[in-house]
Design goal:
The complex is a heterotrimer of chains A (277), B (705) and C (158).
Chain A lengths: L6 E3 L4 H10 L4 E3 L19 E4 L9 E3 L3 E5 L4 H6 L7 H6 L14 H6 L7 H7 L3 E6 L2 E6 L17 E8 L5 E6 L5 E10 L2 E11 L8 H7 L8 H18 L5 H17 L3
Parallel strand pairs in A: 1-3, 2-3
Antiparallel strand pairs in A: 4-5, 5-8, 6-7, 6-8, 9-10, 10-11
Helix pairs in contact in A: 7-8
Chain B lengths: L3 H9 L14 E7 L5 E7 L8 E4 L8 E4 L2 E4 L5 E2 L5 E7 L2 H10 L1 E6 L14 E9 L2 H6 L3 E9 L11 E6 L5 E6 L3 H12 L6 E6 L11 H16 L3 E4 L2 H7 L6 E9 L5 E13 L5 H11 L9 E9 L13 H17 L4 H8 L19 H12 L1 H13 L11 E12 L6 H4 L3 E6 L5 E4 L7 H15 L6 E3 L17 H21 L6 E6 L8 E2 L4 E2 L5 E12 L6 E11 L6 H20 L28 E5 L16 H18 L10 H11 L1
Parallel strand pairs in B: 1-14, 12-13, 16-17, 20-21, 26-27
Antiparallel strand pairs in B: 1-7, 2-6, 2-8, 3-7, 4-5, 9-17, 10-15, 11-12, 11-14, 15-16, 18-25, 19-20, 19-22, 23-24, 25-26
Chain C lengths: L1 E6 L2 E6 L6 H7 L19 E4 L2 E4 L12 E3 L8 H12 L9 H14 L5 H7 L10 H20 L1
Parallel strand pairs in C: 1-5
Antiparallel strand pairs in C: 1-2, 3-4, 3-5
The chains are: A alpha+beta (277), B alpha+beta (705), C alpha+beta (158).
């Protein structure tokens, strides 16, 4: 617990926000505040020395939709997104939302906060990567868009430079033929996959596995090979693909148990079985 | 049934939680706990303490200060040896709780390490704290002549009570030598006795205000006495009113849980695969300090063969002392034994390739053919009827055949695409009150007073009393005495006012206290004819004449009454994650006269959730003092969305005079086993242990592959 | 810091640390007895309040966030038709929460039926788990919310 009273800034525009971050590059950004949970039991939450809260910026609470994509502001809560009509939000995300935080935190926790937590792969990340989501990063005097995957891609470079903040999440709205999500009860694995195609040919396929490790698992080589194949896939093709995913998982993360690997293969098998059926 | 008015009353109830008490000059108390599972304390080095903070250790207590519970005992503060991580060593007392928490971090305790025992598998014979053993028939001969034997081995896991509020107690040692205590408890008079012994005063000088514990699941049975004793010592030594409250995370780590259990079973089979004798060995982890051992052992022993007949049985139940938290009782204390009995039955059904319902019908105990303790059932056994009702409501027979076919025809291994389904049925029974002669030793007093303004006061230390039962009692008294319902009142629960009704456990409030209230009403009616109010009547529990129990041979009728249930559970196993989703639970119950059907249904539904949580979910780890995974683990039932839940009460053949029996524990004794049977059918696993989550299912499949 | 906010329609000022938990301040300084701080990690739902019209666990809301906020607890429902709707719904479902969670379940029900006239059952099954108390099953709670919503609709149409 800090004895020095924290300095708290509450900007009202994106401009104020980025200016504050330029002046206080070490400040922590406060959105839903669910990162403050511990230590529990004590009467006071442990605040960082400098904190910039997002709730004053109206723009960051916004959820907007165009024909091509869904934009989610950095301060939009999980609950606010769940309330957006079901036919607007991709099914994969709809299936993911109830698993992100306990129900009582859904009016506080934000989807962008979930993406920006880097200690482990949070629940929404595999689905957002599978959907090809990108985030808008702003700093004073500029901005850029980067894929969500960059936050959990194992790069040694931190995704945000000092003075930068994520302001928006953009989820492409495409048509998918199969979407599948599973979070295991023991919370060890979060798995998401999508596939689309035409005339019984697979065109696009993404399978993303999240674990307690800070990187996600994706086998792009396998995805590239599956694209272009005729659907439905044969039993042999499916079991080979599942086996390759299992092999890739074992190589990528030695902490996977044999049961984890079995579940990853089971997920891939079930997903590929549904493609084209 | 609750009325809108009653619900409004609940919102405005200002029953003070001990944790809310704020008194001028009050001190806080923080417990210094052992970091070692088994060690000798060499020295306690406190940091420099501010003048208004005191550190109290075991040496400040009277020699006989111990928490006692029917022959078992738990130290109030460890004197020399610590036996579990979290065991209280000393108390820090001072005005500011947050300051005390910071000081606690700076206390350095020097230990000499001893070898700890954490698991039943590593515990040796010296760990056995108590055993009960019973032989009926001639099992040795049966095993000698057996064509073959069936051996089974299963286990059950711990479970957190997760009561609605962490433990807390307020104590004020007054200048006149009296001690006032406020705490949340199911047993106010046990708190009084423990506080009196700890503080070295006569019990009559201790007044305990008992706060309604809510759904405590027996987690507030004896541990409140320990917390209250700590608060009382602190108050005595500091001369100030003291409040001790545990944070939820501290509470999760150091308070009792349901015991883990290991069960080994052997059955002597004849050529047709019928069991001629069984040999059952149950060992449970009683933790560092076994509590309520005698009762737990006997209940487990009675339940060990389930509701089935067997010609010969050798049953041993042992409580093992380990270095985990004292596990103590949790509602449905003999649930592991019921579960194992049904698992053995499932093995026998498989051996004989019988239809499960048919097999159960053939082997169920009846009035003529009793169980291994020669229990006499009062009246016809309702079990067959309950099985029919549960089977019909769930469409059991059709589903069972269809899922059998599905499993046999499965072309792919489990875990590949296909959803696997299963359905299971199990039978359970709840005994009312303490078993054998113990109920007579436990105080069971209820007092009724009709005052001169035609107001009736009911005095009982029963806690918790559900609103359903409370309103039933009021209705009963109102009808029997011809008094306006609003003029029937429940006296507030403090030990200076209410008589000792004993612990509120094993459905005693429903089965024993309701009967005593009826008797007290009858007595007031007779006396009112010859005497003017105020009239006070007290009634105490007496064993019914027909209940014969031989303590020497541990045989006879152990309970004054039993309620019965048959449960069906249907599950579906996710091929990707091996998670079992419950698709439906159907339970048919005979519990005598149902006092308040709505309230009874609510009790059964919530208990089904807890029982399924125990059967399927990972539990809070406690052993290594690491942070618990999360609050609520082991509570959430394995539902994605709540499935159909059917509760049927077979009480149409009961009359006004049929006694009411408890139902609060019934689902524990049949729902977990029905879940396991369903999972076994879905996955093809032969033997299931609890919790049967995805990982154990995977491991079992790997072993059997 | 001095924090000003609206509590159950009344302007309120308290002196607190910016990191103090809102739930703690409401109990200790504003004498709100309908909420309790139990798990303090946003799981158990004992400390629910309506914060700017939304249900949140007040244990993890720091006081600086409460500046100027509109906060409601069960006390703010006393004497209103809204409370009657919830009570009637509970009564019809024979739903009887214990005294530990009755306030939280009442406030949650009010919040749900105020937001959605006809809540979907699947969504309710998730929302019902906001309050984790062993006294009742989620299924019964879902039924109770549905009945409360019916009462609310009937009143709104009148």
């Amino acid at each position: 617990m800090t004895n020095v009273s924290p300095r708290i800034y509450i900007p009202h525009t994106n401009g104020e926000l980025t200016q504050l971050l330029r002046r206080h590059p070490d400040a922590k950004v406060y959105a839903g505040g669910t990162g403050l949970l511990y230590p529990d039991g004590v009467r006071r939450l442990t605040l960082p020395p400098v904190l910039i809260a997002l709730y004053g910026v109206e723009d960051l609470r916004r959820i907007a939709r165009t024909d091509q994509h869904l934009d989610v502001g950095a301060n939009a809560t999980i609950r606010a997104i769940s309330r957006v009509a079901h036919n607007v939000v991709p099914q994969l995300l709809t299936d993911t939302l109830p698993h992100i935080v306990p129900p009582g935190l859904r009016n506080l926790a934000t989807l962008v906060g979930n993406v920006c937590t880097l200690e482990r792969v949070m629940t929404s990340v595999p689905a957002l990567i599978a959907l090809g989501a990108i985030v808008e990063i702003r700093r004073a005097g500029g901005g850029r868009w980067v894929p969500v995957a960059r936050f959990h891609g194992g790069s040694s470079e931190p995704p945000l430079a000092p003075g930068e903040v994520v302001t928006r999440l953009r989820i492409p709205l495409e048509r998918y033929d199969v979407q599948l999500f599973r979070k295991t009860e023991d919370t060890r694995l979060t798995m998401a996959a999508i596939a689309s195609g035409s005339k019984r040919t697979i065109e696009n396929i993404r399978i993303v596995i999240g674990s307690s490790a800070p990187t996600v698992l994706r086998n792009r080589e396998l995805e590239a090979e599956l694209a272009g194949r005729k659907a439905p896939l044969g039993r042999r093709e499916i079991s080979q693909a599942a086996e390759r995913m299992r092999f890739a998982a074992r190589a990528a993360d030695p902490t996977f148990t044999s049961f984890d690997l079995y579940r990853i293969a089971g997920f891939v098998t079930t997903f590929l079985h549904r493609v084209g059926r | 049934m609750p009325t809108a008015r009653h619900i409004r009353g609940l919102l405005r109830t200002r029953q003070l939680s001990p944790a809310d008490i704020r008194v001028e000059g009050m001190s806080s108390v923080v417990v210094v706990r052992s970091e070692k599972a088994h060690a000798r304390i060499i020295r306690v080095h406190p940091p420099e303490l501010p003048p208004d903070v005191r550190l109290l250790d075991g040496s400040t207590l009277p020699a006989r200060a111990t928490l006692r519970l029917y022959g078992d005992s738990v130290p109030i503060l460890a004197r020399e040896t610590v036996r579990y991580v979290g065991e209280p060593i000393a108390l820090l007392v001072g005005p500011d709780r947050e300051q005390l928490l910071a000081l606690r971090e700076q206390i350095n305790v020097v230990y000499e390490d001893y070898e700890p025992t954490f698991s039943l598998d590593t515990a040796d014979a010296s760990a056995v704290a108590a055993t009960i053993e019973r032989v009926s028939g001639n099992p040795d001969e049966a095993f000698e002549h057996a064509t073959r034997t069936l051996e089974r081995d299963c286990s059950t896991g711990i479970q957190e009570h997760f009561y609605p509020e962490a433990h807390s107690a307020y104590a004020n040692f007054r200048r006149d030598g009296r001690i006032e205590v406020t705490c949340t408890t199911q047993w106010p008079y046990h708190v009084r006795r423990t506080v009196a012994e700890t503080a070295g005063v006569a019990a009559a000088r201790v007044k305990v205000y008992a706060v309604e514990p809510g759904p405590a699941l027996d987690g507030k049975l004896w541990y409140p006495s320990l917390v209250a004793a700590h608060a009382a010592i602190a108050s005595r030594q500091s001369g100030r009113p003291c409040l001790l409250r545990l944070d939820r995370s501290e509470d999760l780590l150091v308070t009792p849980k349901r015991a883990t259990t290991r069960i080994r079973q052997r059955a002597a089979l004849d050529a047709e695969g019928n069991a001629k004798a069984v040999d059952i060995d149950i060992r449970y982890d009683a933790g560092a300090y076994p509590v309520l051992t005698d009762e737990t052992l006997r209940r487990m022993m009675i339940a060990s063969v389930g509701a089935y007949r067997v010609a010969a049985a050798h049953v041993r139940v042992s409580a093992l002392r380990t270095n985990t938290v004292p596990t103590g009782p949790m509602t449905g204390i003999e649930a592991p034994a019921w579960f194992a009995a049904e698992e053995l039955a499932a093995g026998l059904i498989r051996e004989t390739q019988s239809d499960p319902v048919e097999w159960k019908r053939r082997h169920i105990i009846t009035q003529e053919a009793s169980n291994h303790i020669n229990e006499q059932l009062s009246g016809r056994s309702p079990v067959l009827r309950l099985m029919d009702e549960a089977a019909q409501a769930s469409d059991f027979n059709r589903k069972f055949s269809a899922f059998e076919l599905q499993r046999k025809n499965r072309t792919t291994a489990l875990g590949a695409v296909e959803v696997a389904r299963g359905v299971g049925m199990a039978i359970g029974s709840q005994g009312m009150g303490f078993s054998g002669r113990t109920e007579e030793l436990v105080a069971g007093n209820v007092q009724l007073q009709l005052d001169d303004e035609e107001v009736v006061w009911l005095y009982t230390s029963s806690r918790p009393v559900s609103a359903g039962l409370q309103s039933y009692w009021k209705q009963l008294i109102s009808e029997r005495l011809g008094i306006e319902p609003d003029n029937v009142r429940l006296a507030s629960c403090d030990t200076d006012t209410v008589p000792d009704s004993g612990p509120t456990v094993f459905s005693r409030a429903v089965s024993a206290h309701t009967r005593l209230i009826e008797q007290a009403c009858n007595a007031i009616v007779s006396r009112r004819a010859v005497q003017r109010p105020p009239i006070t009547v007290r009634r105490s529990y007496r064993r019914p004449k027909r209940q014969k129990w031989d303590h020497e041979t541990q045989s006879g009728t152990p309970y004054p009454g039993r309620s019965w249930a048959a449960a069906v559970v249907e599950v579906e196993v996710d091929p990707m994650t091996f998670e079992a989703i419950v698709r439906g639970v159907w339970i048919a119950i005979d519990a005598g006269r149902i006092l308040d059907p709505a309230s009874a249904r609510q009790t059964v539904l919530s208990t089904i959730n807890h029982a399924l949580g125990w059967a399927a979910r990972r539990q809070v780890p406690t052993i290594h003092m690491s942070r618990p995974v999360e609050t609520g683990v082991g509570f959430d039932p394995p539902f994605r969305y709540e499935p159909p839940l059917y509760v049927g009460f077979a009480d149409d053949h009961h009359t006004e005079r049929t006694p009411a029996l408890g139902i609060g524990e019934l689902p524990w004794f049949c729902v977990p086993a029905a879940y396991a049977h369903a999972l076994a059918q879905a996955t093809g696993i032969d033997s299931i242990s609890l919790p049967a989550g995805p990982s154990p299912v995977y491991e079992a499949l790997e072993r059997e592959r | 810091m001095r924090v000003r906010f609206t509590l159950n329609g009344k302007e309120t000022h308290v002196e607190s640390d910016p990191g103090d938990r809102l739930g703690f301040v409401l109990r200790e300084h504003c004498n709100v007895r309908s909420l309790r701080l139990d798990c303090t990690i946003g799981r158990c739902g004992s400390c629910l309040v309506l914060f700017e019209g939304l249900i949140v666990n007040s244990c993890i809301v720091p006081m600086f966030r409460a500046v100027g906020a509109d906060i409601m607890t069960v006390e703010g429902l006393y004497g209103t038709q809204s409370l009657v709707d919830v009570e009637r719904g509970f009564e019809r479902a024979s739903f009887e929460p214990c005294q530990y969670c009755a306030c939280a379940k009442t406030l949650l029900t009010h919040a749900i039926i105020s937001e959605t006239a006809k809540p979907r059952r699947q969504e309710l099954a998730v929302q019902a788990q906001t309050v984790r108390c062993r006294c009742t099953s989620y299924r019964q709670f879902v039924e109770a919310i549905e009945f409360s919503a019916e009462h609310r609709r009937a009143n709104d149409e009148r």
